[in-house]
Amino acid sequence: MQESNFKKGVGFAFVAYIIWGTLPLYWSLIKGIDALETLMVRIVLSLVFMLILLPLVKQWGSFKNDLHSLIASPKKLLIIIVSGYVVTLNWGTFIFAIEAGYVLQTSLGYYINPLVSILLAMIFFKERFNRLEWVAILFAFIGVLYMTLKLGEFPFVSLILAFSFGIYGLLKKLVPLNAMSSITIETIVTAPMAIIYFIYMMMYHSLSIGLNMSSFWLLFSGVITAVPLLAFSAGAVRIPLSLMGFIQYIGPTLIFILGVFVFKEPFNMDQFITFCFIWFGIFVYIVSQVIKIIRRPKPLKYQE
C-alpha cells in the first residue's frame, strides 16, 4: 500500500512539473490580448474553477473551516492576502515573459528558485547551511552577475520569478493550508483587483478579449492554473521533500528546451556560460541534498 502511495506521489509530481514546463506552449496560443488582461482573466477563471471543484471533490466543508479560521486570525489572513498578490505577480511575470520573448529567462528563474528559497530561509528562519549550499548560491550569483555585465542584460524576469515564488513559499510556511483551500482563498482575495480592472477598462478603454481563438484558449486558464498546483500538493504529501526537490528541475528544463528549439530564442556562448554557472550551482545543491539524505539517521528497527 505504501509503495502504491509512493508511486502515485511520484506520478502527481511529474504531472505538475510537466504541465508547468510546457505552459509556454499554452500561453503562446493567446495572441493579441494584453498580458495584464490575460492575468486578470486567469484570476477570475481560477476562482470559478475552484468554486466548482470544491463541492465536486467534497472539500467545501474543509474550505469553510479554513476560511473561518483565517477570519478569526487577522494576522494569518493578512499573510494569505499578501501571498495571493505575490503569486499573482509571479503569474503575471510569467505571462509577460512568454509574450515578450523571454522564455530562456523564465527557465533561468525557475532553475535558481530553489537556491533563492534556501537564501530566504537563512534570512527569515535563521537556518544554517553547509558549505556546498553556499557554493551553490555563489555560482548562481556569479551566473546572474556574468549575464548582467557580459550581455548587458539584467535578468529581471528571472529574478522576479525566482524571488516571488520563493517569497510565496515562505509565506505558505507561515500559514499552512491544504492546497484546495489555499488556491481558492488566494483567488478570492485577488479577484476584487481583477473585477476593478475590468470595470475600469470597460468604462474608459476597451477590452482585447472577444470572439476569437485567443479568447477561446484563454477560457482554459483557470484549469491550467489550478491542476498543476493540485497535482503538486498531492505529490508533496506522498513523497519525501528531497525527491520533490529533484523532480522540480523537470519544469525549467522543459522551458529551456522550448525556448531554444521551439521559440528559437538566441542562445549564444555568453548565455551558455551563464547557464553553466547556474547548472553547476544546481549540481552542487543536489549533491548537498544527497549527502544530507545519506547522513540522515536511520530509524531504529524494532526487534523481538
Helix content: over 70%
Estimate nothing, just give the exact number of structural domains: 1
Unreliable segments of 5+ consecutive residues: none
Q: Please, how many helices? A: 13
Query: Could you tell me how far the N terminus lies from the C terminus, measured between alpha carbons in angstroms?
Result: 24 Å
Tell me the structural class.
mainly alpha
Q: Judging from the principal axes of the Cα atoms, what is the shape?
A: globular
Strand content: under 5%
- Rg computed from alpha carbons, rounded to a whole number of angstroms: 20 Å
Task: Classify the oligomer.
Answer: single chain
- How confident is the prediction overall: mean pLDDT? 88
Strand segment count: 0
Protein name: EamA family transporter RarD
Organism: Staphylococcus ratti
Keywords: Cell membrane, Membrane, Transmembrane, Transmembrane helix, Transport
Family: Belongs to the EamA transporter family.
Write the layout of secondary structure elements.
Layout: H1 2-28, H2 35-56, H3 60-71, H4 74-100, H5 103-125, H6 131-150, H7 156-174, H8 179-204, H9 213-218, H10 221-236, H11 241-247, H12 250-262, H13 269-295
Domain EamA: 8-148, 158-285
Transmembrane segments: 9-27, 39-57, 77-102, 108-125, 132-148, 154-171, 183-203, 215-234, 246-263, 269-291
Family: Belongs to the EamA transporter family.
